[in-house]
């Protein structure tokens, strides 16, 4: 994770956090279910709602389980949930105006929610085109639905009034979003400054505090965590001798070169940090043991081939701990650290995990 990746990590924000998003989805499912029950009790459940309620509930429930299982990113799920709810509101209003003789029905009053949801839950770049598309579909769709049963004069009166009201919704929400954007810019600037507290000044990768924050943000120690992960502890062999013989300035240059090499070689989703001294830590997510060992061996081999003039023969030992081996990241790290110690004891320049012991 290089400098730009670090800044991206600490500055990237979602309009709605996954935990809140899941609560909102469950709330929406409850609302659709409640409307279904109320309409059934009072015998007002029409054929359209029988089908649309069921489709909406199934779709939102599916989105909820995708979010729980981390199968799809949060931004995509937000857009899917928005599409389900906005699609229901628009289609129900269009259907109502098609089958009823009144030019304006109560179902149209709910359509303003589509713009509120877009600006509250979607980022600005998605909210703007989304509202334009929704506005166009709403106005054109209602024109076609109303003119089927009414004169052009009455239809234009209703549609123009609706267009003005919806334009006012969008204009007011745009003002709100501009204020939110200004606040976010200030917040992001503060977060940028805070981000530097998590960066190792020498190597420009995460420091120990930064690694701890990433672990906390990922929720790897939470009861609800279902991500597999592994911790690789990478230690440069005989590094004390490098400092003693060549001086700390040369030693620092080698650390910078190795950190830069690791940043380029690990996957963008892997978390790289300097744990202290000549020790680096890599947190890799959702990989099986075979891929993790392949990564470790690749890093070990390529470190040994680095040009570290005037020092030659730089190698590294790697200890690995897996998430299923410990109750939390501290225990997994201790396992990896113990395996690193074993690697040092039996000859260095090698990889050790719970199954690979020599």
3D structure, described in words:
- The protein has 358 residues and is of the alpha+beta class.
- It has two domains: 191 residues, no CATH class; 145 residues, Reverse transcriptase/Diguanylate cyclase domain (Alpha-Beta Plaits).
- 64% of the residues lie in helices and 8% in strands.
- The protein is built from twelve helices and five strands.
- A five-stranded mixed beta sheet has the order 2-3-1-4-5, with helices on both faces.
- It is elongated and about 95 Å long.
- About 2% of the residues have low confidence.
- Its EC number is 2.7.7.65.
- This is diguanylate cyclase.
- It comes from Marinomonas phaeophyticola.
- InterPro entries: Diguanylate_Cyclase, GGDEF_dom, Nucleotide_cyclase, Rev_trsase/Diguanyl_cyclase.
- Keywords: Membrane, Transmembrane, Transmembrane helix.
Please name the defining characteristics of this protein.
single chain; 358 residues; alpha+beta; Alpha-Beta Plaits; 2 domains; 12 helices; elongated
List the helices and strands and how they pair.
Elements: H1 3-11, H2 18-41, H3 47-68, H4 74-99, H5 113-121, H6 124-147, H7 152-195, H8 208-218, E1 229-236, H9 239-246, H10 248-265, E2 271-276, E3 279-285, H11 289-304, E4 316-322, H12 329-345, E5 351-352
Parallel strand pairs: 4-5
Antiparallel strand pairs: 1-3, 1-4, 2-3
Catalytic activity: 2 GTP = 3',3'-c-di-GMP + 2 diphosphate
Keywords: Membrane, Transmembrane, Transmembrane helix
EC number: 2.7.7.65
């Amino acid at each position: 994770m290089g400098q730009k990746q670090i800044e991206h990590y600490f500055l990237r924000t979602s309009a709605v956090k996954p935990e809140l998003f899941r609560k909102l989805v469950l709330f929406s499912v409850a609302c659709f279910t409640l409307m279904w029950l109320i309409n059934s009790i009072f015998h007002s459940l029409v054929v359209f709602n029988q089908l649309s309620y069921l489709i909406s509930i199934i779709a939102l429930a599916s989105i909820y389980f995708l979010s729980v299982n981390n199968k799809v990113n949060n931004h995509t799920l937000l857009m899917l949930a928005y599409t389900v709810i906005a699609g229901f509101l628009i289609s129900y209003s269009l259907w109502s105006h098609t089958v009823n003789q009144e030019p304006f029905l109560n179902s149209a009053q709910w359509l303003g929610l589509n713009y509120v949801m877009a600006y509250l839950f979607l980022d600005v770049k998605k909210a703007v085109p989304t509202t334009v598309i929704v506005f166009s579909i709403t106005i054109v769709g209602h024109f076609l639905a109303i003119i089927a049963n009414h004169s052009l004069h009455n239809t234009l009166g209703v549609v123009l009034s609706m267009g003005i009201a919806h334009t006012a919704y969008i204009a007011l929400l745009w003002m709100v979003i501009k204020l939110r954007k200004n606040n976010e810019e200030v917040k992001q600037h503060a977060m940028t400054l805070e981000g530097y507290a998590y960066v190792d000044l020498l190597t420009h990768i995460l420091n120990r505090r930064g690694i701890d924050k990433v672990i906390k943000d990922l929720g790897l120690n939470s009861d609800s965590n279902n991500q597999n992960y592994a911790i690789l502890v990478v230690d440069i062999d005989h590094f004390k001798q490098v400092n003693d013989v060549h001086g700390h300035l040369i030693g620092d240059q080698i650390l910078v070169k190795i950190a830069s090499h690791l940043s380029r070689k690990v996957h963008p989703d892997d978390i790289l940090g300097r744990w202290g001294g000549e020790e680096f830590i890599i947190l890799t997510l959702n990989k099986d043991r075979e891929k993790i060992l392949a990564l470790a061996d690749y890093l070990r081999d390529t470190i040994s081939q680095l040009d570290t003039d005037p020092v030659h023969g730089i190698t590294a030992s790697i200890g690995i701990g897996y998430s299923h081996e410990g109750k939390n990241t501290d225990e997994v790290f201790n396992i990896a650290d113990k395996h690193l110690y074993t690697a040092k004891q039996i000859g260095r320049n090698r990889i050790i995990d719970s199954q690979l012991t020599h």
